[in-house]
Design brief:
single chain, 124 residues, alpha+beta, Ribosomal Protein L22, Chain A, three-stranded antiparallel β-sheet, two-stranded antiparallel ribbon, 5 helices, 5 strands, globular
Amino acid sequence: MIRGIGLDLCAVERMAGHLAQGRFLPRYFDEAEQAYILSRGPGAAASMAACFAAKEAFVKALGTGFEGVPTRDIVIEHLLSGQPRYVPRGLALTRMQALGAQQAHLSISHDGGMAAAVCILEGE
C-alpha cells in the first residue's frame, strides 16, 4: 500500500552556486553523499541537485516538509549499477515508520538544467 508520494525539481545552476560557495554541501549532505557528489567531476552540480531533490521528495511524501527532519537523516546512496536509493535514519526513519511505511522508493532524472526526484513510501 502506498503511504506517501513526493516529487521535487531542483535547478542545477542553483546547486552549482551552492557548490562553489562551499557551505551548503556539508550542511545538507552526510560525508558519503558529499564524497559521491564531489566524485562526479563536471557533473557534481547535477548530482547535488538530484540528491537534494530526492531529499525534498522524501519529506513531501512524509507530508511534513523538513520540519523536524534533518536533511542529513535522509541519505541518498547509489548502487554500483548507479541506481539511487534511500537510506533513512534518525528522525526521517522514525517519521517514515510512523506513517506505516517500510520502504522508500526513489527515481531521479536530470534534463535541461533541472533535476527531478520522485519518492514513493510503501507499507502494508
